[in-house]
Design goal:
Blueprint (H helix, E strand, L loop, with lengths): L1 H18 L7 H25 L1 H6 L1 H27 L1 H16 L7 H33 L1 H26 L4 H10 L1 H16 L7 H19 L11 H9 L1
């Protein structure tokens, strides 16, 4: 149940946005994503043009082919790393709006506390993303296809963290508590990582994938929260003990 709930969550998020008056929240993320894609491709092209300049000069056809491949790969990697960070504010607003519509209220954290925590967690995420990228590229170079699968798995895990970060952050979860939540719900985490990865592979959907995934994670978290068993009530105090306590 948890796996399929996570698998369809990003697409459920997109359907929810289009079925409710929330489409205006996609305008800024869409424009920023298009601009980011242009910048990352330009940066990747410029970097690899310098790195492969000798190959392009000696073997123009082969050099241009590799230049095109590395430009696309480099631009996509930079885009996937930067987009969740660039759109974090917009995705958080959309996630909070959805939570308020579904629950009638939304959990909130004081602005300064949430901003400081978001900055720290964002830096920690960048470090982990860098480690995951290095590990994925290293294993790909050594083991080929097996390393690529590990890289995809790490990317899916990163997407799962990004999505559930929004509802968890509003509940004051620490950096470690957010990862603990993913570990306690492996089916939900794996399913969501796969679903979000597939969403990012759909042409043009990549520009709004981040807010869609954030809404989907919020809805999945609310479902999980509602299905959680209520906290056990405290044991009643025996009448005799209560009388003794009152007379003491």
């Amino acid at each position: 149940m948890g796996f399929f709930r996570g698998l369809f969550a990003p697409f459920r998020g997109g359907l929810y946005v289009f079925r409710h008056p929330l489409k205006r929240y996609l305008i800024a993320p869409l424009l920023l994503s298009v601009a980011l894609a242009t910048v990352t491709m330009f940066a990747a092209r410029r970097y690899w043009s310098q790195e492969l300049s000798s190959m392009v000069s000696s073997t123009p056809v082969l050099g241009q082919f590799f230049l095109g491949i590395m430009t696309v790969v480099g631009g996509v990697v930079l885009f996937l790393i930067a987009q969740p960070l660039l759109l974090a504010v917009f995705s958080d607003q959309l996630s909070e709006r959805v939570e308020r519509e579904v629950l009638g209220k939304a959990h909130t954290v004081p602005f300064l506390t949430s901003t400081g925590r978001a900055l720290v967690h964002g830096l920690l995420k960048l470090v982990l993303y860098g480690i995951a990228l290095v590990v994925g590229l290293g294993l790909t170079a050594v083991t080929g296809g097996f390393g690529s699968l590990i890289g995809i798995a790490l990317a899916g895990l990163s997407l799962a963290y990004d999505g559930f970060d929004y509802p968890l952050a509003r509940r004051g979860a620490t950096f470690g508590a957010k990862w603990a939540f993913l570990a306690r719900n492996p089916g939900l985490t794996v399913g969501y990582g796969i679903g979000a990865t597939v969403l990012y592979l759909i042409p043009l959907a990549v520009f709004v994938a981040s807010p869609f995934a954030a809404v989907g994670a919020t809805l999945a978290y609310i479902d999980l929260e509602k299905s959680a068993p209520p906290a056990p009530a405290p044991d009643p105090v025996p009448a005799k003990s209560a009388n003794l306590a009152a007379n003491s």
